[in-house]
Structures are given as structure tokens and as C-alpha cells.
Amino acid sequence: MKLSTFLILLGLFAVVSVSYFYLNPKPLELLESKSIQRDEEIRPAGLETPAVNLPRKDEIKPVSYDSMNLLNLSQADEINWFQIQNLEKHKTITMIKENGNWLIKYPVQCEADPKVLGKILEVLESTEKIKMLQPEKDWEEYGLLKPAIKIGIQTIRHPERRYLYLGNKSPIGGYTFARWQNGEEYFLLPEDFGLLFDYSVYNFREKRIFRLDMMQASRIRFQGPSESYEMFKQGFEWIWQKPNLIAGMRVPMEEMQRLLNGLEDLMVKEFLDTNGSAAEDTGISNSEAFVKVYYKEQTETLFIGNEAVVRDAFYIHREGDDADAFVARSQIRRLFDEISALASSTVVD
């Protein structure tokens, strides 16, 4: 190759290299360019395609009730109205929280058992939706048009009442179909979730006879048909006042604690919301048997009526309640047997 030809080719190569370097962006410039175009219209060269815009965060709509929590309550919020409608059994129970205490308002008006209701509300507040879904059929196919169970809630910060519908069991996976009233989505909950609300009014009622703190009691009186027992608290010790034979003697601490536990364990076996019908001779109105516990500013009294042999119970009435009730015969007898044995052992000693 002649020297002149070689020099010509070398010059052409230099021209091409310089042109490529200046006409094409550097790698860093290319990255910066792509970063700038990220939120702009993306149009492939030579094609008339519509613009694609990425949505802003504030344009993204959350799913119903903001999260997968069934109840997305803040720490400052709490349920203060609760209702269970079992449409299959035609039963409705309505409860409301007033002054820190839960009350049953329907079908009877009485105190609610705070432990039973508290556990149910705790599960309700901690349950999470397993999966959110869009309906592909009518609500009736999921059992969510006229659900078997409706759960109504109202909270302090959200006074509007809303209802949770519990529908059919899913054919696959063992779940329960559920949705909020007027909600556009439905979701899956554990299969046995509905069993949480399969309670009777009796289950929700406060069944304890003595509901105040027994450790704050200052005096206790037991009055039977023919015997009377009474003791009072002095410092940390309990002292007999009746019978007179043992007045002033100390009640053994261990035995006294057993007696207090027995009072705390007294439970209603069955409620009589007719307050003692004419057909039943409760014997409460003229009964002389009772147990009375004195506190600093309050008292609690259990009036004991006739024995209901068929029900294996005693008719009773708790002071302040609207309804009479039954307490198991074994509980009443055990209580009076224990106080009698305790007094007898004190005399012997």
C-alpha cells in the first residue's frame, strides 16, 4: 500500500471517530436523560402510541378500611356499641358501654359479662382479612346479600354504625366470605370466625352474684333460717362478731380466704326475667335467708328463697337486679356448710 493511500484512510478513520464521540451521549448523560424522562411521556420512535404517565402516590386509592385489619382502630379509639344479629335463629343482642361498664340493652336490660365480651372484642379487633377480592357474581352467591350473621359496631371516634356481613363458607380453602355493608369488595376470614358470635343472651350476661372486689370487704353477714354468722375486718385480720360464743376470736386467714373465694364463685345458673311469676312460689319476698357483704361505701346482698327441687337450685334475688334467678343448690349449701364448720372449729379450738 502506498504511503499516500494509508494517510488518506487514517484521516477518514479519525474523522469518523470524532463524529461518533460528539454526536452520541456519554453513558452518564444517557442515564440522566432517562431519569428526566421517567415521569414524562414515553413514545417509541416512529410509533404513534398514547402517552403513559405514572400515577402519583396521592392518586392511589386504598382498599376499603385502609388495611388488611378487619377493624383499623387507632389506640385512642374503642368500640362502645356492639350488636349481634343471627338472622337464621332470629336473635339479636345489643350491648352498649356506659361509664366504663358494658350493659345489655336488648332483649333484656342488665349488666354484661366484661370477660366474655372483652375476649370477643379482642379477637374482633385483632383479626386480619386473609384476602381481598372483587365479586364476580351476585352477593347472593356468597351469602352476603342476606347474611346469616350481621355484626354491628360503633366506636368513640366513629359514631356512625357499620355492619360486618358473614356469609357462606368458601368451597375451597375453608374460609368464610365476608364484607362490610355497602362495601364493593369482599374478603376471606377464618372458617370458624362465625362461631365467635354464636352466643346466647345468658352467655353475655353478668352471672356473678358478688361483683365488687372482695379484698375491699369490711364486714360479712350470713343469715340462715335458724343461724346467724357475722365477721368484720380489723387491719389484715378477720374477727368473729356472731355467734356470741366466739365473738372477738380471730378467723384463720387460710379459712377466711377460702370463704371469700366461695363468695366470688357464686354464679347464676338461670335467670327468671319475669321477676318471679305467680305460677312460681320463689319465697324471696318473705325469705329470712341472705348473705350481705359490706364495703367502705357500698353493700351487696344475696336474698335466698325457696328450694327448686326439679331445677336442683335455690330461687335467689341479687339486690339491685330486676330479675330473680336460680343458683345451684350445691353452691348455696356448700357456702353455709363452710361457714358453719368454720364457726364450730373456732369453738372447739
Would you kindly provide a written description of the structure presented here, covering whatever features stand out?
It is a single chain. This protein has 349 residues and is of the alpha+beta class. It has two domains: 79-204, Immunoglobulin-like; 214-348, no CATH class. The protein has six helices and 18 strands. A nine-stranded antiparallel beta sheet has the order 4-3-2-1-6-7-8-9-5, covered by helices on one side. Strands 13-12-11-10-15-16-17-18-14 form a nine-stranded antiparallel beta sheet. Helix 5 (253-264) packs antiparallel against helix 6. The longest helix has 21 residues, at 3-23. Mean pLDDT is 83; it is low at 18-66.
Note the overall shape: elongated
List the total number of helices: 6
Mean pLDDT: 83
The number of distinct structural domains comes to: 2
Q: How many β strands by DSSP? A: 18
The Rg value, from CA coordinates, equals: 38 Å
Helix content: 10-25%
Spatial arrangement of strands, main beta sheet: 4-3-2-1-6-7-8-9-5
End-to-end separation in angstroms reads 136 Å
Following the backbone from N to C, one meets helices and strands in this order, namely: HHEEEEHEEEEEHEEEEHEEEEEH
| Range of strand content | 25-35%
Structural class: alpha+beta
Query: How would a textbook summarize the main sheet?
Result: 9 strands, antiparallel
What are the segments in which pLDDT stays under 50 over at least 5 consecutive residues?
18-66
